Amino acid sequence: MVSSDVLIPGAPDSALAKAATELVMSCSPRTLANHVLRTYQFGMALAEHDRLNPDRELAYLGAVLHDLGYTERFAGPRSFEVEGADAAATFLRERGASEEDVALVRDIILLHLIPEAVNDPRPEVVLVKIGVSADNFGRRLDDIDSKLVAAILAGAPRLGFKDFIVRAHNEEVRRKPDGTAAMLSRQYDITKRFATAPFDS
């Protein structure tokens, strides 16, 4: 288990990471903004447990930008992860990121819904996937010290995230019946998994 002595993973101290945080805070409901922060924090804790060695900045960018497609500013007619990936790519290119880094962050966002992403050879993709699963469904929380889990939740409260994500997911399925979210809903009972995650809200 990851020790509770480990500090809550913070954002990398780079201009790009700070700009990404500012973007997310400016366009996301606080419930969603806190989710993407927890995604990074849970993902980093589990990456340490799994002895992964991700690039922290790229993992952070992928984590905090992964739900841009759920925001009013960046929503569009395609699957939300595609809209979000393209929005993130534009954001990064405008700030001088390399095409290699843009491609990786874009893949992180595109793949974060796909169960097989946990087997991706790129640790940044895995980190965000396992972080999303931990925060959405409570998956692998037992691999993180309970005091660290509590500290992460206190630092970025859920604020009714279960209700928020169920509504957002169901609306995505309704509006885009051929999208990725709809495909996953046909394969798995995603709404029930959101609702029964081991969190208060």
From TrEMBL:
Residues 28-100 form the HD/PDEase domain. It comes from the Bacteria. Coiled coil: none annotated. SUPFAM superfamilies: HD-domain/PDEase-like (SSF109604). PANTHER family: CYANAMIDE HYDRATASE DDI2-RELATED. This is HD/PDEase domain-containing protein. It comes from Longimycelium tulufanense.
